[in-house]
Amino acid sequence: MLEKVQGFNGDRVIEEFEALTKEAERVQRETLQKILEENGAAEYLQNLGLGGKTDPDSFKACVPLVTHKDLEPYIQRIADGEALPILTGKPIKSISLSSGTTQGKPKLVPFNEELEQSTMEIFRTSFAFRNRAHPIGNGKALQFIYSSKQFKTKGGLLATTATTNVYLSQTFKNTMKDIHSQCCSPEEVIFSLDYNQSLYCHLLCGLICSEEVQFVFSTFAHSIVHAFRTFEQVWEDLCCDIREGVLSSRITIPSIRSAVSRLLRPNPQLADTIYNKCVNLSSWYGVIPELWPNAKYVYGIMTGSMEPYLSKLRHYAANLPLMSADYGSSEGWIGANIDPEEPPESATFTVLPNIGYFEFIPLKEIGHEQKVENCASIIGHREPEPIGLTEVNDGEEYEVIITTFAGLYRYRLGDVVKIAGFHNSTPKLQFVHRRNLILTVNIDKNTEKDLQLAVEEASKLLAVEKVEVLDFTSHVDMSTDPGHYVIFWELSSNAREEVLSNCCDCLDRAFIDPGYVGSRKVRAIGPLELRIVNRGTFHKILEHYVALGAAMSQFKTPRCVGLSNCSVLQILNSSVLKSIFSNAFD
Questions:
Q1: So which domain of life are we looking at (predicted)?
Q2: DSSP class per residue in 446-499
Q3: Which residue of 130, 182, 187, 288 has the fewest CB atoms within a 10 Å radius of its CB?
C-alpha cells in the first residue's frame, strides 16, 4: 500500500526540477560542498591539500584536471581490495566497465549508491517530461536490454558494465515499476550471457505482450536496429512458437527456457495475426507500430555515433516518434532530455545541477588543429581555464569536466558539447563529438562527426542501386607513403563497381577540413581507400566486444580503429571483399 502512495508523480518531479534549475549556481556550490564533505577523508583529496575547504575556488586551485589514465592506479587499488578510503569516503562496492569500443579495452570506473541514485533521478526526470508529451498507460515496455559478464576483482568487488550494475539494483526495478516501464521479458532473459538467445526471447515476449507494450527501448539505437534486423530473419520461427506454445529448440539455457515457457500458451489466433501483418509489410516498413499498436514512441540514445542508425530506425518505426535518451557515460550522468518532441538530430540535454559538479573548457579560443586533439596531446598547450555550469555561453563549444559522488574529481570526460540555450539558469547541451576520435595523417583533423557526414553524403549514391550502408568505420593507414584514410563499409547487397568508385570519390571530397583538402592537393595525404567488407563483419566486431565483457545494449561501433585496436583491425582486414581508391584529386 505504501508503494502505491509513494508512486510516481510526474508533476512533482517537474516541479522539483524547475526549482533546481532556477538556482543552478547555488545548487552547484552546495553539490560540490556535499561531494567534498562526504569524501574529504579520501586519500586522493587529502594529498591535494584542500584542508577541509569545499568552495569552488579552493577546489579548482588544489585539484588538477585528470584523465582516466591519471586515476587508473587509484581505481586499481580499490579493485584489488585496499581497505583505505582511496577516492571516496565510503567503500566502493562495485566497479563499472566501460564498453571498451573507444580505446579497444574496457576502463574500470567506481560505482556506488550515489551514482545509482543519480541514475534514477535522470530516469524519473526525463520520463516526467516524456510522459507529459506522450502519456503512456499502465502497460509494459519492449526493452532490448542485456546484462554483461560479471566477475569478482582481486579484492572481491563485483565488476560488470554500468548498465548491468543498474539492472541488478532493486531501486532500478522499483523505478521501472513506478514509471510503467517494466520489461516484457523475465529477468532470466535480461541476465543471460548469450545475447542471441536473449534477443530472440525479448522479441517473443514482446509479441506475447503486444497489446500491453507502451514503448520500445534499448540503451542505444544500434541495439534496436539490430533487434529488428534479427526479427526479419526469425519472425516465422517466433510465429511457430506462439502457435504451438512451445519454445524454439534454439533456446538451450535451462533458466531461460523455464522462465519463457511459463509465459507461452498455444495461441494460433495471435500467431496468424502476426504472420498476416508481416507478410503484408513492404520491406518491413513500419513493423514496430504494426505489431505493437499501442506503442507511443521508440526510445534510446540516438545522438553521436548512433545517428547513422536513425534512417533504418525510422524505417522500422514509420510515423512513431523517435526520442533520444539522456546524456551520460559509465563515469556518470550529466543531463536529461526534457524536450522529447525534438527530433534526435536536434536533441539537447539539460544538466541536472545536483547530480555532480560540472565545469567546461572553452574551445573557441583554441585553433582548429588543437580543438580536436586528443586530451593527452594537448598537455603542454596553454588552454583556457575551465568555467562553471552557469558561466557558459550560448552557441559555443566546450569540453566537459565532471566531478562525481563516486570519486572522480575534475575528470575530463572527452566529450565536446555545444550550448543550445538554457532552461532557467542551467544550460542545455548538444553532443558534438568525442574529442579523441579523429582521423589525422598530416595537418588534417577530421572528427567522428566529419566522418559521419562524409558517409551520409556518399551513401546517397547507393540509393539508385537500392543498397544501404549497414555499418561503417575508419582507419588511418600509415604503412603507405604518404598515409591515407581507409573507410570500411558493410553493404546490404552488391553495388556496381562504377557506383562504388563514385562513392569513394565522394567520400574523399566530403572531408572539407582545409588541412585535409590542402594535403590531398599537394599529395601529402594519399587517395582515400574504400574497403567493402563481407556481410556480418560488424556483427563479428560486436561479438568480439561482448566476449571481452561488454553488454550487447552498451555496444557502440568504433568509428576510428587505431593500430592499438589490433583485434578489430584484423577482423576488418580479413573480411575485405574489394578495395577502391579515390580519383577525386587526380
A1: Eukaryota
A2: EEHHHHHHHHHHHHGGGGGGT--EEEEEEEEE-SSSS-EEEEEEEESS---HHH
A3: 187
